């Protein structure tokens, strides 16, 4: 009986570790996707910043 409980405990623990590994892998994929999205947004914001700075400089030059 003692060995049976130990075997059941080991199997349940192994199953839990497999599920945890799958969840961590899914989280890793989600983090990688999020990083790609943030990089694309950073590029877009950088472009907008550049255009706004050009517009500000153009407007300053027009008044001078």
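Sequence proposed for the structure above (64 residues):
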């Amino acid at each position: 009986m003692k060995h049976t409980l130990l075997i059941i405990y080991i199997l349940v623990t192994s199953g839990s570790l497999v599920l945890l590994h799958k969840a961590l892998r899914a989280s890793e994929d989600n983090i990688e996707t999020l990083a790609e999205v943030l990089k694309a947004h950073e590029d877009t914001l950088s472009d907008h910043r550049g255009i706004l700075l050009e517009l500000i400089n153009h407007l300053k030059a027009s008044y001078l």
